[in-house]
């Protein structure tokens, strides 16, 4: 269904009305919270349902207005060069300019010569990089040639840079037009291998024993998981009723350093966690847990278990098998294998919780909330982060973010059913799967 009227004026008016209404919801919320006009750094707070909805309407409507009023060729040219702001962001992150600017008085900023001196980047060229980002409100040029952090750049002060996604993606066009590789869903035939001139999958590449120089990247990847987790964790934790799982066992399959389980362990004091991954990841996990939640390690509430999820699941009948950021990395075939091993281990009390993005196209879906018209069903650009993840995971691992229909198809092939897709107030969803025979007979214990 085309949600956009052929009458451009009518569409623009209706978007502006929508913007005014949604903005009032946001302003009311700011007033109630006594918030300053500029949003602060990432707080880990979950927005109210009204605020979350209003935000995505504003984002989607602003961009749709831009599409309506901008010259189409200019818009396409801008999008075709939009890798350059990403590159600029990468450059300033590597040079740690966010951290350098913390030392500046926010109203006076730091002179470009000083920033150049600190980073070794030519002042004239760095000036242009920073100005590109100022136009996107990342940094502020407070006086000519003097820069300060903006509320956006402030949010990443003290963070480490990462770079694999960008490097991998530049070979995606070559892979998609290759007569054979375009049809492959193997993790060994991706843009990543092409760009890194390697036969290794991303996970193999990250194993520290492969090469000393990769140890840093392995740690950066774990940090990225923690960072991504921080971005979404608050909403995942409150938008699924995890409190009802206290006193049970949660198996974190491919749990990495266990950043999601760590948060859950703080919230659910009587729950036992079994963190499964490869040995080298579990070593990092053990260090992280000993620092972050030593009492859980001391009391044996967390167990670190070496396990390959393509083999039989050793923990039988656990209440919950959690997979966060796992299935999106794998082809349908591989996902069915992983899910079947879990299915074989499940009892009628068990559930699989898949914390991943769920892709919503611009067309309506029965299982996901649709945006009010004339916005596209997925709120347009407000959904862009998930589309970006989808292409990123294609570049790196031949993986994919899945639509509700695709999740259903996977569940069915593995002998499971989707009990519910829990939409969280972030870019994440929790897809809950149960044994299909239990569900049909009404035996599956429901939350
Ligand atoms: C994207 S990370 C997600 C980590 C964690 N679930 C999280 O959300 O923080 C994927 C994890 O899967 C693990 N992994 C990859 N292949 C695996 C396998 N065959 N068996 C078990 N873990 C695996 C990786 O080591 C990595 O820690």
UniProtKB/TrEMBL annotation:
Residues 78-156 form the O-methyltransferase dimerisation domain. Pfam families: Dimerisation (PF08100), Methyltransf_2 (PF00891). GO terms for molecular function: O-methyltransferase activity; protein dimerization activity. Keywords: Methyltransferase, S-adenosyl-L-methionine, Transferase. One of its GO terms (biological process) is methylation. It comes from the Eukaryota. SUPFAM superfamilies: S-adenosyl-L-methionine-dependent methyltransferases, Winged helix' DNA-binding domain. Residues 190-415 form the O-methyltransferase C-terminal domain. PANTHER family: O-METHYLTRANSFERASE CICE (PTHR43712:SF2), PUTATIVE (AFU_ORTHOLOGUE AFUA_4G14580)-RELATED (PTHR43712). This is Uncharacterized protein.
């Amino acid at each position: 269904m085309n949600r956009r009227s052929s009458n451009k004026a009518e569409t623009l008016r209706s978007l502006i009305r929508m913007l005014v209404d949604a903005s009032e919801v946001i302003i009311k919320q700011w007033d109630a919270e006594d918030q300053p006009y500029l949003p602060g750094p990432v707080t880990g707070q979950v927005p109210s349902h009204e605020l979350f909805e209003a935000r995505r309407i504003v984002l989607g409507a602003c961009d749709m207005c831009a599409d309506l009023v901008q010259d189409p060729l200019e818009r396409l040219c801008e999008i075709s060069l939009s890798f350059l702001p990403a590159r600029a962001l990468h450059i300033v992150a590597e040079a740690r300019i966010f951290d350098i600017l913390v030392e500046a008085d926010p109203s006076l900023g730091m002179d470009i010569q000083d920033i150049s001196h600190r980073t070794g980047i030519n002042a004239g060229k760095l000036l242009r990089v920073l100005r590109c980002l100022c136009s996107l409100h990342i940094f502020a040029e407070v006086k000519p040639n003097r820069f300060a952090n903006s509320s956006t750049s402030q949010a990443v002060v003290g963070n480490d840079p990462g770079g694999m996604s960008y490097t991998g993606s530049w070979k995606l066009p070559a892979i998609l037009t290759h007569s054979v590789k375009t049809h492959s869903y193997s993790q060994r035939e991706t843009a990543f291998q092409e760009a890194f001139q390697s036969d290794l999958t991303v996970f193999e590449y990250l194993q520290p024993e492969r090469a000393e120089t990769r140890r840093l990247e392995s740690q950066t990847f774990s940090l990225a998981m923690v960072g991504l987790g921080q971005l979404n964790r608050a909403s995942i934790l409150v938008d699924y009723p995890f409190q009802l799982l206290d006193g049970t066992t949660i198996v974190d399959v491919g749990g990495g350093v266990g950043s999601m389980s760590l948060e859950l362990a703080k919230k659910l004091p009587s729950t036992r966690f079994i963190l499964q991954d490869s040995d080298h990841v579990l070593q990092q996990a053990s260090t992280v847990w000993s620092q972050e939640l030593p009492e859980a390690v001391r009391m044996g509430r967390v167990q670190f278990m070496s396990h390959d999820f393509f083999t039989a699941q050793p923990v039988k009948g656990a209440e919950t098998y959690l997979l966060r950021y796992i299935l999106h990395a794998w082809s349908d075939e591989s996902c069915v294998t992983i899910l079947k091993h879990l299915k074989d281990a499940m009892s009628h009390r068990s559930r699989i919780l898949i914390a991943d993005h769920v892709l919503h196209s611009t067309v309506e879906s029965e299982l996901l909330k649709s945006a009010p018209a004339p916005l596209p069903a997925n709120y347009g650009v407000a959904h862009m982060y998930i589309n970006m993840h989808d292409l990123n995971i294609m570049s790196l691992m031949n993986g994919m973010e899945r639509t509700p229909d695709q999740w259903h198809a996977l569940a069915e092939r593995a002998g499971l059913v989707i009990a519910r897709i829990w939409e969280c107030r972030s870019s994440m969803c929790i897809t809950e799967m149960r044994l299909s025979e239990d569900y049909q007979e009404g035996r599956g214990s429901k939350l």
